[in-house]
From TrEMBL:
Domain Carbamoyltransferase C-terminal: 406-577
Domain of life: Bacteria
Residue ranges that the Swiss-Prot or TrEMBL entry lists as coiled coil: none
Protein family membership: Belongs to the NodU/CmcH family.
Name of the featured protein: Carbamoyltransferase
Alphabetical UniProt keywords: Transferase
Annotated Carbamoyltransferase domain residues: 32-352
Transferase is among the record's keywords: yes
MF GO annotations: transferase activity
Amino acid sequence: MVLGISGLPNAQRYLARSGPDPLDERICQGLDSAAALVVDGVVVAAAAEERFSGVKGTGALPVNAIDYVLREAGVSRDDVDAIAHGFDYDGFRRVFARQQDYFAEVLSGRTVIDALTEAGWRDVERRFRPVTHHVAHAASAYLPSGFGSALCVVSDGMGETEALSVYRARDGRLDKVHSQPISDSLGLLYSICTRFLGFQFNSDEYKVMGLAAYGDPARNRSVFDKLVSFDPESGGVRVNWPRGSLADAELGYPHARAFLAEGAGFTPRVPDGQVHPEEADFAAALQAKLTGVLADLVAHWMEKTGERDLCLAGGTFLNCKSNQILCDLPGVDRVFVQPAAGDDGSALGAALHVAGSYAGSVPFNPYTGPSYAADEVGAELERRADELGLAWRQVGLTEEYFALAAEDIAADRVIAWFHDRMEWGPRALGNRSILALPKGDRIKERINGLIKFREPFRPFAPAVFDADCATLFETPAKDPVRYMLCTARVREEHRESVAGIVHADGTARIQLVRRDLNEKFWTLLSEVKQRTGVGCVVNTSFNVKGQPLIMAPGTALDTFTATSLSRLYIEGFVVWKKSQSS
């Protein structure tokens, strides 16, 4: 019985002492804390701490997530055989000889041991098992993949002293064949560019990915060609920052940003939610360079090792545009990206690595979070509906229930859909989702402006009925499309019928919905297809800007009340506002 945890509980507090700019408040290690429990090789439960605390991306000790995973398994703290942590800085103490106070307060494994002890755990030190960060990432992708052998690539901002590593994985073992240091970090490059464009470091990289679709990479191609290159001799990527560029990280890497401004020939304006050509062109060139060097690196190591299957982990591989190109590479048969590819996923990887086996079914089940019984939902409605101005009716999980939801979608109403266990990772996969008609009237504008309260250039993802996927999209049909981690081109002849999910570059970040993974969501999509002729819906996360994905019924009611959503479908209950008709 292995508990896996991620995060460094003192990191954000230590950074806050320097009074950073709000855009720099996440320039630290150990964010996105989470907990996962593996019992006899089976993933019993996993969840990020942000879903419980409401603090998006928190790196605090995941006390609530830990309590949840133990409760889900029906075990106590003392029943846990090992506590696996997704960092092992103690093996690199000498690297931080000039930062001893920082090491002792933030990086040392002792900080986690002490935090758990303070939280009431006993005998922590004997059970504590630190796992090198990239090994935790690699295990999180390879062990649940179902592949006997594979090439496993890990890329993120940094982990201990490395930023990209390549493993040959076989028979449950991970053998490292390549590693490169933080100075050559692709994740750090992307985050610095995110900050250069005026977005928050270690938070808003996905906005830059979305913005890139509106730009022309040619304008800034030379900037990134000089800065980043693939070395076919070593099989590594080189990021050629001028000396001193990576200094003063807590100030938002000002020297690196000044270098980018000089090369690009402009200083970005404060983001206002609109698409401006200079910023979009810069983002497009960044995205093109990232994708290009990753493709070169993966192709090199696939050929060198002779592997045909590919596993990807680390925050870099939340970039679904790059993942699309990697899935399409010649010689790549299968690809697996674990749904929580970022640092939350290192909790799962650390647990699986220490457990030494994975006994789950394939495909990986991403629904590992809390669920709520109809009785609990009913009690919450009884208690709070009147004060919130809500009306409701319990229909049960009947044919009528799915038909009502499908009719709402077909009638161009935007609904919230809340069922079963919460998703693992950042993407809503049909259990905590906002759903809408892809060809609805001004659907992007309505959801971005009146419901999500976010930038109007942000795209929406489609959830697609498995039988309709190949009809609507040009997709390699590899596993990342199950978890909304890969884009695909929308077929020209169908773009009008699903216009609300087509991004500026003609692609969409799809979720393929299969009955064996999510029968309720699959049933809803089949009902939608009967009414609209297309088994596809807009699927975006049930939350608003700055809020983590919703976990519990009470938060669902509050968020539904505060937005322009038409209906909430939650565990057999239909909820609407009294100001609306039933």
